[in-house]
Each structure stands twice: as structure tokens, then as C-alpha cells.
Write a structure and sequence with these properties.
By secondary structure, this protein is α/β, with parallel strands linked by helices. It folds into two domains: 185 residues, Rossmann fold (3-Layer(aba) Sandwich), CATH 3.40.50; 97 residues, Rossmann fold (3-Layer(aba) Sandwich). It is 33% helix and 23% strand. It has twelve helices and 17 strands. The strands form three sheets. The chain has a nine-stranded mixed beta sheet with strand order 4-5-3-6-2-8-9-10-17, sandwiched between helices. Strand 11 and strand 12 form a beta hairpin. Helix 1 packs parallel to helix 3 and helix 3 packs across helix 11. The chain is globular.
């Protein structure tokens, strides 16, 4: 599927970040990383979210303490990731076009999360996030309820997805030690070069999971019985990522993309916790917003560490488009 957003002429550059699949492409982490890069360079940058399954009553900037039902999970994750950067805000509204117009009053650059392209005028820069190992996905990878959701949407051909973008960004997982592997980047460039677009690999770094202000390293997690709770379309991708770091969850409880964690998952999580079959529950920052409701009060939930490092070519492109 491909989302092309109708946008009125805007007084600032627009970076559109789309994903190649329903969930799991890494588009929101990529959008956050682009926003951070622009803000750290001194540009007032607004990330425009889509507030999926939420009900914002007016155009607004998201605060780290906002409610999930007010702004949506991905917008809230972005706001918390960018918290403390005075030059970065996350905007939502009842309609995305309204959020864009609202954000453009303040921002020097807009970053659109989940939009492949804009019309009638094209985005200044359109990026297509793809999973480096499984770029186009398969319906069988989806959570059962999300397969129904995909069935009601139009699946875009690869050529259409690529035609809408200016560059392809493969999301590469770094080594368990948090190091960038240049060999993986070279392989990704070679693999996607045939698409006829520049290829700018991004590396996803992770050191383990955070409980409060303490980091549980991958070594510490390997010594524990780990339970995983997900609220994403493709939970198997998180499982594979953990296994690469030597962590094999003893149980995986999955809700549909964007949640909520249903009663069945909640009952299972509480029963497993009471029986002490799991030493620590882990979740991505997005999944944690939904997972906490399924755990007994006071039960700690470890948030998987997640940092995206952009390619030098993409960083240079962002700096150049914001320069005027």
C-alpha cells in the first residue's frame, strides 16, 4: 500500500517517510532520526504524525506526558524520543493536512511519518524505509487481525513504491555489541541498487533494554527468562532481532498493530507473571504503551534500546535542504 497525502503549498521543505510494508519497515524510527538530525543542526523541525486509533480534538504539538488515546502511540513514542530538543516538535490533528498546516506555522522543515509522497507538489525529499532482509514482506508474517486489515487495503506494486520515493533506506541491524558493520551496508547498497534510486542504509543500534534508568545489557538478558509483549503488525521481526542478540523469549504475547492489548493477552501475561515463569518482560517503546495495561500493577517492563544512525549521504541531504 502507498499513502500519497494531499497537501496545500507549504512555506518550508517537506521530508516524506514511507514504509514498504504494513508495519515493520522502520518508517517511524527513520522519521524520528531525520527529525533529530535536522533539529540538532539548529532547524526548527516538526514531525507530523498520523494519530492512528486516537482522537485529537484540534491541531496540537504532542507532549511526552500526553495520553495514548489523545495522540496515538507512534506520535507519543516520537515525542518522548525527541523530548528535550527545543528545535523539535511532534504535531497531530484530526486530519493530517491540518497537522501539516499547523506545524508549518512554526517549523522550518516538516517530516511526515507514514507518507510516501505528497500532491499536487512532490515532497522536497521522499524516503522509502525497507527492512534490509525482508523488504517487501508477506501477508503470512502479519498478526491475524492485521491480515484482515491488509485485506481491506490496496497492496502497491514494488515499482509504485519505488517510483514515489527519491531514495531507498534499508534498515540494518547492528551487531549485538552495538557496532556498525560496513560490510552489511555495502551488501544492502548492492542489493537495492537495481531499483534505480540512491540507497542510503541506516543502522539500528541496540544495547539491550531499559528498566527505569538502568540498562539490562544483552548479556544480562541472556541470563534471564525473557517474555516479549508486542503490539505491532509483524511481531516475528522483533523475535528474530532478539534471537540475533542471543535472547530467545520463553513466551511471546502479541496484540494487533497499535493495540490495544486485549483481555486474553492481559490474562495470559498476568498468569505467567504470577507463576514466575518470566524474569523480565520486554517490549519496544511503542508496544510498551499498550503492554503495560496487560501486566499486574508494579510489574516492571523493560524497554528495548533503539537508536537509528543515518548514512552520511542522507545526513548531508537533510542539511542541504534545510540550509535556505
Amino acid at each position: 500500500m502507498i499513502r500519497v497525502e494531499r497537501a496545500l503549498p507549504l512555506p518550508c521543505p517537506v521530508v516524506a517517510v514511507g514504509g514498504a510494508t504494513l508495519g515493520g519497515s522502520g518508517k517511524t524510527p527513520l522519521a524520528i532520526a531525520c527529525t533529530r538530525e535536522l533539529a540538532l543542526a539548529g532547524n526548527r523541525t516538526a514531525l507530523v504524525g498520523h494519530a492512528y486509533r486516537a482522537a485529537p480534538v484540534r491541531p496540537r504539538f504532542v507532549q511526552a506526558g500526553d495520553g495514548l488515546d489523545e495522540v496515538g502511540d507512534e506520535a507519543l513514542v516520537a515525542a518522548r524520543a525527541l523530548d528535550g530538543l527545543s528545535a523539535a516538535h511532534v504535531a497531530v490533528a484530526p486530519r493530517r493536512a491540518a497537522a501539516m498546516a499547523f506545524a508549518a506555522r512554526w517549523a522550518a522543515v516538516l517530516v511526515l511519518d507514514g507518507v510516501a509522497q505528497t500532491r499536487p507538489a512532490r515532497a522536497t525529499l521522499a524516503l522509502l524505509a525497507v527492512d534490509a532482509e525482508d523488504p517487501w514482506g508477506a501477508a503470512g508474517d502479519l498478526h491475524a487481525l492485521d491480515r484482515l486489515r491488509l485485506g481491506s487495503m490496496r497492496q502497491a506494486p514494488t515499482a509504485t513504491l519505488v517510483g514515489a520515493c527519491d531514495a531507498v533506506v534499508p534498515m540494518l541491524e547492528a551487531t549485538p555489541l552495538g557496532r556498525v558493520d560496513p560490510t552489511l551496508a555495502r551488501r544492502a547498497v548492492a542489493r537495492f541498487a537495481t531499483l534505480g534510486r540512491p540507497v542510503w542504509p541506516a543502522h539500528v543500534l541496540s544495547r539491550g533494554a531499559w528498566v527505569g534508568g538502568s540498562l539490562l545489557t544483552w548479556g544480562a538478558l541472556r541470563a534471564r527468562r525473557v517474555g516479549l509483549i508486542t503490539a505491532v503488525a509483524r511481531p516475528d521481526r522483533i523475535v528474530r532481532s532478539l534471537e540475533k542478540c542471543g535472547v530467545v523469549p520463553v513466551v511471546v504475547l502479541s496484540a494487533r498493530d497499535h493495540g490495544p492489548v486485549g483481555r486474553r493477552v492481559g490474562r495470559l501475561a498476568k498468569a505467567i507473571t504470577v507463576a514466575r515463569q518470566v524474569d523480565v518482560w520486554v517490549a519496544t517503546p511503542k508496544c510498551a504503551l499498550h503492554a503495560a495495561a496487560g501486566l499486574p500493577a508494579g510489574e516492571p517492563l523493560a524497554l528495548l534500546d533503539h537508536t537509528v544512525v543515518l548514512a552520511a549521504e542522507l545526513r548531508a541531504k537533510l542539511h542541504a535542504l534545510a540550509a535556505p
